[in-house]
Amino acid sequence: MVIYHRLSDKKALIIGGTGGIGRSIALALAQNRAELFIHGGTSQERMESALMEARSFGVRAQGLLSRIDGTVAPFLAFCPEPDIVVAAHGTFLRKRIVETTAEDWRFMAVVNLAFPGALISAVLPGMIARKYGRILLFGGTDTGVIRGFSTTPAYSAAKTGLAVIARSVAQIAASFGVTCNIICPGLVDTEYANEETKSYNRAKSPSGIPLIPETIAQTALHILDSPSLNGAIIQIDGGVSL
Ligand SMILES: NC(=O)c1ccc[n+]([C@@H]2O[C@H](COP(=O)([O-])OP(=O)(O)OC[C@H]3O[C@@H](n4cnc5c(N)ncnc54)[C@H](OP(=O)(O)O)[C@@H]3O)[C@@H](O)[C@H]2O)c1
Q1: CA angle 38, 44, 47 (to 5 degrees)
Q2: Residue 242: what pLDDT?
Q3: pLDDT at 1
Q4: Exposure check for the chain: N or C terminus, fewer CB within 10 A?
């Protein structure tokens, strides 16, 4: 395992850090001796498991459970002045555009775009002042380019919007040691995937083998360590095409 010494003792806020890709990143950060502030949605069991495993690496780790409703104040109180912010939370929505309701559009826009945007606006001045910051966002599969999505338009539109946020942050904050990048994963088998999803992931993955969270986490750590990678939209998708 590569050890990224520059990440040690950094305060890392991982949104959606109790499951899937977020959990793998949280644990990889723990192995690199970062101090963890792990957020999760509703599962106390997943939170306790993530905290226990993180602490087994000898680092400090605390947790916050909350459904994301667009408010950032609880996150700032939970982790004031983070050095690292990873936004790896759900929520996914598979609905064709003709079936998508006004509430679906609002919910997807709040959770997947407005919330990360508002959180970044709140933490960025501190990162700029301290001359260090790492922000990592998660797009959807193939949402790094403007294209149509027949079954996930509301989710994918919000995720595509994240690219504007990442590039805007890079534009104003790169000279202050702050980076903001996006990973657009392909089809990843997580503990949330049921048999139907796993079978879809296998069938669609060019290699026939879906990605695993640990693979995404390895690249995530490299991105978080790097001072020069900025405003990048990085597809880790095994060449999948939906
Ligand atoms: N998995 C894939 O194939 C894939 C593909 C492309 C992009 N992505 C993106 O990559 C990121 C990670 O995906 P993932 O599949 O590993 O995990 P995920 O299911 O999207 O997210 C899991 C984490 O988010 C929390 N969470 C879920 N809904 C929430 C809500 N409404 N409010 C607050 N917290 C919530 C979960 O907590 P609880 O467990 O307590 O609910 C858990 O900590 C996401 O942004 C996803 O959109 C994933």
Answers
A1: 30
A2: 85
A3: 78
A4: N
Tell me the C-alpha distance between 121 and 118, whole Å: 5
Residue 9 CA to residue 188 CA, distance in Å, equals 29
Q: 6 and 225 in contact (C-beta within 8 Å)?
A: yes
Position 154: which residue type?
A: A
What's the CA gap between 40 and 65, in Å, rounded? 5
pLDDT band at residue 97 under the 50/70/90 scheme: very high
Give the residues surrounding ligand 1 with Cβ less than 6 Å away. Answer: 16-22, 40-43, 46, 67-68, 88-92, 111, 138, 140-141, 185, 187-188, 190, 192, 213
Task: Give, in words, the CATH class of 5-229.
Answer: alpha beta
Average pLDDT over residues 48-52: 98
Distance CA 55, CA 74 (A): 23
What is the pTM assigned to this prediction? 0.98
How many beta carbons lie within 10 A of that of residue 227, not counting itself? 12
Closest-CA residue, ligand 1 atom 37, reads 41
